[in-house]
Design a protein that fits this description.
Blueprint lengths: L1 H8 L6 H22 L9 H18 L2 H40 L2 E15 L2 E12 L2 E5 L15 E6 L7 E3 H28 L5
Antiparallel strand pairs: 1-2, 1-4, 2-3, 4-5
Helix pairs in contact: 2-3, 4-5
Length: about 210
Amino acid sequence: IGIMIFFAKTERAGLVPAVLGQYFLVFGLIIVIGTIKNKEFNPITLIFPSAGALCIIVTLINYFGSENIMTFIDENMPCILMALFLVVGIVLVAVALSRYFGRKKRCSYSVTAKCIELRERADNGQMMACPVYEIWYNGEVIKLCDDVYSNNIDVKVGDEKEIMINPDKPKEYFVADEMTASAIIIGGIGFAIILVMIFAFFMTGILG
């Protein structure tokens, strides 16, 4: 906030978006790295660092760029934005497919798991829950929890579900129907973005 006030006082308010972009970029990268380390990467988290980087680049070009560059950006901004959205859509589809088939390949052993607990926590005034499963594998009892909380849990304590585990690392697992739904949602969003952008390219005459 202090930096923004300083820019405003020194008639450099045009640099404020770059400052905001730095916050989005830094905190976005922290979130992305954290999810990767916890093996819970979600491509949606890429939106924050991408938006931050875009704010920084556009602001610096606008503030320090040559007149030719600014003219090029002004004339081609719709195409640039459509191309960026098209890339986002392709990335979402690719990540959804990679996560689905990658985990399906690693987690190839089916076991029956029993829900023994629902861990709960409050998030923005809503109660979120995460199921804890128990399985019998290789002569020992193993507890499984992916620490992914949701307010839409279709399992209760005592229920049994067929889950797929990694035979080499049994704590890596997935519930088939849940993973399929997640892949369909993420991939569907990406595919919808791709279709809309292709239609936009045709409407603007770029691909026509």
